[in-house]
Amino acid sequence: MQRSRWRTLGWALVFLGPSAVPLVLFTAVPMVSSAWVSLHEWNLISDMRWVGLDNYRSLLTDPATREVFWHTLLFVAGYLPLVYVGGLGLAVALNRRMPANAFFRAAYFLPVVTSWVVVALVWQWLLNPSDGLVNHLLGAVGLGQPGWWTDPTWALPSVILASAWKDLGFVMVILLAGLQSIPGDVLEAADVDGAGGWRRFWHVTLPLLSPSTFFVVVISLINGFQVFDQVFVMTGGGPAGSSQVVVGRIYDLTFRYGRAGEASALSWLLFAVILAITAVQIRGQKRWVHHA
Amino acid sequence: MKNNRRRLTAVAVAGIASLALGACSQGSATSKDDDSSDGQTTITYMEFSSNGGHEQDLAAIVDAFEADHPDVKVKVETTPYDSYFTKLQTALAGGTAGDTFELNYENFVTYAENGSLAELGSFDEAAYKPSLLDAFARDGSQYALPESFSDVVLFYNKELFDKAGVETPTSDWTWDEEAAAAKKLTDKGAGVWGDYQPVQFFEFYKALAQSGGSFFNEDQTEATFDSPEGVEAAQWLVGKPGKTMPTEADGAGTPDFDTNLFKDGKLAMWHSGIWMFAGLADAPFDWDIAVEPGNTQKASAMFANGVAVNAASDNKDAAEEWLSYLTSSKAMADTRLTTSWELPPVADESLLAPYLEQDKPANRAAVMESLESVALPPVIARQAEMQDAITKELGEAAAGRKSVEDALADAKKAVDALLG
Predict the structure, then answer these.
(1) What is the pLDDT of residues B132-150, one digit of tens each?
(2) What is the pLDDT of residue B23?
(3) Nearest Cβ partner of B1 from A46, A278, A291?
(4) Per-residue DSSP letter, B306
(5) From A86's CA, which of A131, B57, B133, B234 has a CA 20 to 30 Å away?
(6) Do the beta carbons of residue B344 and residue B335 sit within 8 Å?
(7) Rounded to two decimals, what is the model's pTM?
(8) Which residues of B touch A34 (CB under 8 A)?
(9) Rounded to whole angstroms, how far apart are CA atoms B66 and B45?
(10) In whole angstroms, what is the distance from residue A245 CA to residue B404 CA?
């Protein structure tokens, strides 16, 4: 009896190992050590000096911290609606029998698996202020031609646009799966009851899609708050710091300014913010997420 | 149903945990191999200044060194300037930095202060220009050897000047002449711009010196660039984009934008460094250089690069031998002069003669003339942050989001905080 239990445990460890070892090495250990670093002053090279909570205190009073959180918030506020509404539109459009259905689904998913560096370079070119495709088109129809990622006012919107485009396919796939799990008889019943297309979508489809919506919103918010690659490649946080985001600041603090302690503290602040927002969402979901 | 929710919660929490903190882990890709089994020592050398056209020239110096020192091999690792210091810092932190590495004058203090540089002792002091040797000493000890120096001059496209009927720049020019010429030379319809001077830290400290202002007070405890001279300097830089110079919205500030504009024959005057000579050799039009125009006084930017031995190197002697060769050998001086690279830091200025005799640009004397009134960049331990703060605030003013006065006041606040 006793022996077989040990044996079960042994086998469990064997099977857990491949995921548990990397998780401990590359997630748990860095988390604990970053908490430790965040209590020190450290330039990566000299010895660490204990400063207690000073890093957190100075971050909270630093105007740069406020600025990068504000930019990140603006990014999320622009990105989330775009990516959700866009993904939903695609999912609904592709959730019916039509020729080349699989092709379109694959095509819209392609950017999701493409490297950010490639996507950012493509968008940098599309949104090139002087000879990009977008400004050519805007000019052709007589609209204004913004400076996009080279103009402080338009830099963040440029990044938002590229990000929403890239992640559209991911949202589409999740929502498509959600749409397909909605029982046909419920929709039929709505038809019989005389609900038109819009009402059926609004009062039956959307509520039944809410678990997928919840998942998409939670994941997109987490990703949104950690936005970095696209900013780094497209604008480098500029011009004049107008598109610098929290993780970009963490990168600068660590690798350009040699302030690893403050960078770690900022990572933990970001963690706290994301945790709080996600906790609120999980609590709030009771009110609007309907599990079939 | 309950199960479903719990799973979502788990996914969400795991998601944040792994993503939030995964963001700050990064590996270094540099490798270091030491094999002294066959009596050979391998020295690694990290650098940026050969990037973009002089890689072969550096390789020639390495070959000459290795022929001279059969027991030492040099492995060069070149990184573009834009990412060089990020890479160097990460490599030093991870213990994977080379035995020797390049530093510029602005970043030297940062690295000397954090203890990553070994003290040097066996070089030939007399070989170097004293002022350059001094620039890389700290508290009476030599922590790096000067490797090269360069300055910034005014490049101009002669054809555009002739076409517009404007007299070409001379060393007597001031900002007024430059501004007047730029205005006449700008032809937005044809996509031709009169002037290009980046709106950033390096141009600002120089324009400030040209206006007779100072960046810091004497004991470097407070920034003083928010003075009337500072405002004048910032106004000079910020006033160009959109009028005689392309704006950021036109692409200014993006990599190689100005170089390509000049090469395309669409830029009349260009503030840039003499390291550009080689790259412009095959431009299909006539161009030349002049000493940069001053305001109330002349001041030209000088840049100096140095090379240092890693304090953690196992081969310090061989490393210093390589650096001595790299900075004072005849092979190095010849290579630098004939390829129009940055200038060698030699004490004997007559050695520079072959450089001055070359054509394109014809007025190479301006390179030396500029050295007569030099403004070195202000340097503090938190250099990168200071440069970023100045460039950021100037950008705000250039974009019209702040007045020049407010931008400089905010920059002063930021820089003062870095001094503390």
Answers:
(1) 898 899 888 999 999 999 9
(2) 43
(3) A291
(4) E
(5) A131
(6) no
(7) 0.82
(8) 21, 24
(9) 14
(10) 25
- Among candidates A129, A255, A271 on the partner chain, residue whose Cβ is nearest the Cβ of B21: A271
pLDDT in tens, chain A (292 residues): 577 888 999 999 899 999 999 999 999 999 999 999 999 999 888 888 999 999 999 999 988 999 999 999 999 999 999 999 999 999 999 988 788 888 988 999 999 999 999 998 899 889 888 778 888 888 888 888 888 888 888 999 999 999 999 999 999 999 999 999 988 888 888 888 887 888 888 888 999 999 999 999 999 999 999 999 999 998 888 788 899 999 999 999 998 888 999 999 999 999 999 999 999 999 988 888 887 5
B chain contacts of residue A263, beta-carbon cutoff 8 Å:
24
- What is the token pair recorded at A236? 């480098």
Is any Cβ of chain A less than 8 angstroms from the Cβ of B83? no
Listed residue (A239, A234, A264, A290) closest to A249, CA to CA:
A264
Separation CA B33–CA B28 (nearest Å): 15
pLDDT in tens, B226-258: 999 999 999 999 999 888 998 877 777 777 888
| The residue type at A3 | R
Positions of chain B with pLDDT lower than 50, given as ranges = 1-3, 5, 8, 10-36
Instruction: Count CB pairs under 8 A between chains A and B.
Output: 140
Residue to mutate among B248, B266, B383, B396, with most A CBs inside 10 A, is B248
pLDDT at B14: 47
Burial B173-189 (b: 16+ CB within 10 A, else e): bebeebbebbeebbeee
List own/partner pairs for A66-71 with CB under 8 A and 24 or more apart.
A67/A241, A67/A244, A68/A244, A68/A245, A68/A246, A68/A248, A68/A249, A69/A246, A69/A273, A71/A156, A71/A242, A71/A243, A71/A244, A71/A245
Contact A282 B24 (CB under 8 A): no
- Hey, are the CB atoms on A43 and B114 less than 8 Å from each other? yes
CATH architecture of A15-288: Orthogonal Bundle (1.10)
Please check whether residue A120 is in contact with residue A230, taking contact to mean a CB–CB distance below 8 angstroms: yes
- Quick check: A244 and A71 in contact, CB under 8 A? yes
**Residue holding tokens 């920059």?**
B411
Query: Which residues of chain B are within 8 Å of residue A270 when distances are taken between CB atoms?
Result: 20
ipTM of predicted assembly, 2 dp: 0.79
Q: Which of B24, B85, B398 sits opposite A254 (nearest CB)?
A: B24
Place of tokens 């819009």: A198
Q: Name residues 263-282 of chain B within 8 A of A (Cβ).
A: none
Sequence letter at residue B149: F
Domains of chain B and CATH, by start: 41-148+303-364 (3.40.190.10), 151-302+375-419 (3.40.190.10)
Alpha helices (runs of H) in A115-255, residue ranges in sequence order: 116-126, 133-140, 152-180, 184-192, 197-200, 206-225, 229-234, 246-251
Dihedral of CA atoms A225, A230, A232, A236 in degrees, nearest 10, equals -100
* Shortest CA gap A99–chain B (Å): 35
Give the DSSP letter of residue B223. Answer: B
The domain limits of chain A are 15-288
Q: Do B89 and A222 touch (CB under 8 A)?
A: no
For residue A255, the 8-state DSSP code is I
